[in-house]
User: Which sequence fits this backbone?
């Protein structure tokens, strides 16, 4: 990527991140970058927004009780 294109991309991400913060979305720069890249690839932005909302509703894997799928051996 040439320097001007890289600068423009960085400025666009900075502006998007600032707007995201103003709207209190809770999205970080990396997540926004991934979402922008997916939109650039042609994915529907409304579908991506619905997916983000759905993923936020689901409990985090780290908050679930740990379960083992391996058989336990008793000596």
Assistant:
């Amino acid at each position: 990527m040439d320097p001007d294109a890289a600068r423009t991309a960085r400025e666009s991400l900075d502006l998007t991140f600032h707007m995201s913060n103003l709207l209190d979305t809770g999205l970080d720069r990396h997540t926004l970058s991934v979402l922008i890249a997916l939109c650039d690839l042609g994915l529907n932005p409304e579908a991506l927004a619905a997916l983000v909302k759905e993923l936020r509703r689901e409990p985090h894997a780290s908050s679930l009780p740990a379960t083992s799928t391996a058989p336990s051996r008793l000596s």
Observations:
- The CA atoms of residues 27 and 74 lie 46 Å apart.
